[in-house]
Amino acid sequence: MKNLSSFVFILVAVLATTFSCKDEVTSDPANENQTISDEHPKLILTAQGVNDIRAQLGTIPIFDNTLAKVKEEIDAEIEAGIEVPIPKDYSGGYTHVRHKRNWVVLQKAGVLYQILDDEKYAKYVKDMLMQYEALYKTLPLHPKTRSYARGKLFWQCLNDSNWLVYVSQAYDCIYNYLSEEERNKLETNLFRPFADHISIDSPQFYQRVHNHSTWGNAAVGMIGLVMDDQELIDRALYGIKDLKLDATKKDDDGGFLNKDGKAGFLANIEEPFSPDGYYNEGPYYQRYAMYPFLIFAEGLHNVKPELKIFEYKEGVLLKSINALLNLSDADGDFFPLNDGQKGMSYYNSALVTAVDISYHYGDQDPGLLSIAKEQNQVLLDDSGLAVALGIKNGESKPFTKTSINLSDGQNGTQGGVAILRNENIELVFKYAAQGSSHGHYDKLSYSLYENGEEVIQDYGLARFVNIEQKGGGNYLKENKTWAKQTIAHNTLIQNENSHFNAKYDIGSQHHSVLHYFSSENENVQAASAKEPNAYPGTEMLRTMAVIKDEDFEKPYMLDIMKVTSASTNQYDFPFYYFGQVLQTNFEYKTKETLQALGSKNGYQHLYLEARAKANSDNSKFSWFNNNKFYTLTTVTNNNDELLFTRIGANDPEFNLRRDPALILRAKTTKNRIFVSVIEAHGSYSPVTESAKNSNSNIKKLDVVLDTEDYTAISITTINDNTKLFITSNTNASKEAKHNITINDKNYEWSGSYYFK
Amino acid sequence: MKNLSSFVFILVAVLATTFSCKDEVTSDPANENQTISDEHPKLILTAQGVNDIRAQLGTIPIFDNTLAKVKEEIDAEIEAGIEVPIPKDYSGGYTHVRHKRNWVVLQKAGVLYQILDDEKYAKYVKDMLMQYEALYKTLPLHPKTRSYARGKLFWQCLNDSNWLVYVSQAYDCIYNYLSEEERNKLETNLFRPFADHISIDSPQFYQRVHNHSTWGNAAVGMIGLVMDDQELIDRALYGIKDLKLDATKKDDDGGFLNKDGKAGFLANIEEPFSPDGYYNEGPYYQRYAMYPFLIFAEGLHNVKPELKIFEYKEGVLLKSINALLNLSDADGDFFPLNDGQKGMSYYNSALVTAVDISYHYGDQDPGLLSIAKEQNQVLLDDSGLAVALGIKNGESKPFTKTSINLSDGQNGTQGGVAILRNENIELVFKYAAQGSSHGHYDKLSYSLYENGEEVIQDYGLARFVNIEQKGGGNYLKENKTWAKQTIAHNTLIQNENSHFNAKYDIGSQHHSVLHYFSSENENVQAASAKEPNAYPGTEMLRTMAVIKDEDFEKPYMLDIMKVTSASTNQYDFPFYYFGQVLQTNFEYKTKETLQALGSKNGYQHLYLEARAKANSDNSKFSWFNNNKFYTLTTVTNNNDELLFTRIGANDPEFNLRRDPALILRAKTTKNRIFVSVIEAHGSYSPVTESAKNSNSNIKKLDVVLDTEDYTAISITTINDNTKLFITSNTNASKEAKHNITINDKNYEWSGSYYFK
User: Is A30 within 8 Å of chain B by CB?
Assistant: First the structure.
């Protein structure tokens, strides 16, 4: 801390005495337009922004601290010397890691040169760029062959694009430090061929609507902005001119390369974002795609303000930041919808970019300042300055996450994701479209959280990102054989087949349909959606609610899955809990030897640990995890089975976690209503060794009515208090009036559901 | 906070104006001795102590806050009303929990009466005691029959004794508030019969050396001190007069009831504590036994100072507190040696008692103040006042835990426990005696921690203490069939049999023997011990070290297990790691179906997940847990097998955790040297998705010499730096001089080992 504050002090002193205008800033007003695009920096940092930042330095703690850390980091790198190795490795390997590090270092050194006005940073950037220039012109395709679009510095064009997105910024920062000759050399031998390789030479990567292409577009566009090259800028915005790809080809992940011919940055904004800002691949990839979307948008805003990029598609880029922040749990970790690695959170640097840009270019939401404070760093640019000033001026307010419904699809008509929040309980209900090549086959699935901790988990992806020992850090084959399959999720599986037979081209044609979303009543947060296509001939209508009731310690989850089918089927209905079995009201028998539950569609990865026959109208299962108690109460009949399973079968390289599930299995059934309540209750202290409220509060869960139009569930507590939840299966609009009689009693209400 | 500080303010104001001497404090100096034993309170609180406390109130934050919290807690109880239900349940059940709660409430209400001088607390205590008096005289034995010594309020005399230890204090606090008639009523119908039931009526519980008896002794003694009943006090100190029990009988846990006829509080101090203060059952039960030891000792100190109880056996009671604090990891959690539930820590209230008493009656170690600060509460008595004043006066210093060797056995000659600490790495090496009925069969076993997190775990007990759903909260049968067995521990298992055939009477006759302990060199913390009896005809000598070497990121563990046998055997050598398999240098084949590894001695609880043949001189296994990397390098030969196992087979009620292990198996072997290094290295961030230092730093681990007298191990890093560790297998005294030649090179040193 001492070093840091003295550094800031010296900095301010130095700046106060040595600050002078850059000679490229002309004061001729007649020439102003010309100046804007000629002056540098102009991309992310601007000349005016640099002036403002320098003026405030030493008085804006979060900015000053970020700057001091970056300076320390880059000074150490300069000390260690430049390394630009010949490309050789996959992700996680030495050359991969080094080039990845270099792009970060170059970008930061460039920024330090601008803010600190110290030539050593400019020289460092120049020297490294010259080494890249010398190397790049000698490079063939990267020697590793696994990618559908190989890069030159990296095994995939994607990473080459990452590099250029960052390095464009560095180049912009030292542009005026370089001689024209030096610039020509870099542009001719490095930047232009680099941009061409990831675009013209790699259309299967570049010319599509996909997060990969977004990086490619941004890379080409940003270097185009710096070089003032309109052809590159147009290629970035609209795709490679006059190029049409084979619409039937697929990429490594099984996604179509380019089904409808759309391409370019604008198309990449247009299609994957819904009007609510939901990104079709889910929050993990939204986070990944976010950086090129926003950083290129910031560059466009600065250099091409006439494009009004932040207003494009009714301001969807800024809306998407709000959506993404809402797709995180109480700890800021993103919900692992589709392919998502757990633990990724809004502490990721892409979210620093997102939060700062959203604050500065949006409407200065003071809630964003509280997230920025948690992130404890800001962008070293105009937006970071704005955030730092906001925090300094005490404008920060808590960022409050409430229930939210996010539509999916370009026009918001392809299903969506509903997040139900009630006190510390969060339920994520997915009724979205396929989610591109990173989508999982899990229509109407959900996961449940208590205070940021998983209660009923979504498995996430089967990958150890950047851990080289596990398949080079890339997707593992179990991602396809397990993680994407329906049985890996908390939804209905018919006849041990995945939804859409786990076929991407079929799944991509469909989406679930919102039935209703209701968050007006603070005690009852509810969402309901239909899925008619996952299993042809079978329709699922799932209604989920998180209900706060005075008879319960915490809000509980109510789940009503109504299945209507033309055929007789087996239905599996899993609950992926965590922790240890505490108690059941059914007698299970554990297996002497463990065998896989099935042979395909993910079932080959589940061991069957125990089996039971349901023997009462309600099957109850309590478990214990992280010193908290949970109970599932679910309506069953005597033909139902209950299976205790564990992931891990047919996993020859121990790629899967050994996580448990309870699966409710209904055999030879046509129509079925699955009704379940999950209570989070009580706690245990291993220090005092006392268990509080360790038992379920529910005596009886009953389906008192189930017709085409209505399903009514009664929930009776151990104190014999009964509540009734009636959901409207057909007409569920907010205005709809209902009047029905159940057991001679009349119920009248308007809206989607009744609860009393 | 507002309420709390205003409460303290009012309190001080009230006390300043209303304080008056109790009328039982006589001012006649001639009568002083008489007064001391006649006045009340005298047991834990003393009249003088109460005066001192009242004088300081409002100026001693940690004491004031504790008091405010206790007041809030007890006021709520008084508000809720008294409940004294007819006994009915096992641990965790309603009547059990209520009576347990009542003893806490009574003790606290008594203290509040003394400190706050508010009659409402005295009346509350009196009213509840009268209800107990009315109930107790009607009570038969508790209806639950599982205990070897049934109580009346509780299912076991142990809990009845807990009750009396606390309630004696409450009675002392309101003694003078009661009329003589009331006191007679309580003493005649409640306290004396209560004391008799847990002692004279339950000699199998009372008349032994065991933590149960310690509670019994303290209960009888404390009520004896309050009632000034010398017969009860003697019965407490020396056991039931003239009673000898059958020396061959056993208790519920398989322990002998009374093998050598010793009994009473002094015998219970004498025998289980070693001179270093190690308690033979291990830290979990020491924590449990600690409260009655210390609280009765405090009472004896106050009422019978002539006994000099804190100097008894060279001050072993206070030494034992230091030993116990050292038997905790970086988070303060006790190492789960023998039967120990994980998560029990020095935040337990018994440790508040221990820390405060140790500070006050010991030598005011300022390190204890820092633990008291973490505990954030103090005893509401003289010792708590002393701690509060120490903290207030800024005397607190960090409690530093370094490597420590704790001898076991009454005279410190029955093996022990060595804890090796080096930066954030802690290794617990157990070479102790059996540990009474709670002992496990794990001679020369170890567990390894990094910064308070388990790297190589000890399973602990198989019990969910006070969680009624799991076997009434009592020991589960898997505690015997799994947790106590040798294969559940990180040590050598010969021919799939447990040490001493898991027979308590054999195990109790033996202990391991310290070979050496060396902590002088801060880079090399080492301990070595022999076990000649666990398997007759086989001798194990295990030498363990935690070594800080500049070539490594963190200190690593070196383990040398030298096995010498007269017969040919199969040896299993397990490593109970946590997390996911990352990489091996051997090819394993996973099983299609999982079967138990064996049929008995704990092996019936292990599933075999995968099997491999060792195929090089070093077998390497890397794993990944909680975003950190670990690597085992172990010396193997081509006949060795490596087994991946998981706990959970033959577990019909899901009582066991599904934890993994790697087992090194040597078949048809006589003598064998197992040499292993475990490195903790690197880290992974799921936010930046970067893996640091994820690979082992060891290229080669070699046994370069192994004779009767010496074993020499060379450790070569990937940078080809080689270090040599030579351990002296015979003469290992600090003074011994050694001179040997290995591969033509001469090594000369003095002391237990050589490392360079």
Answer: no
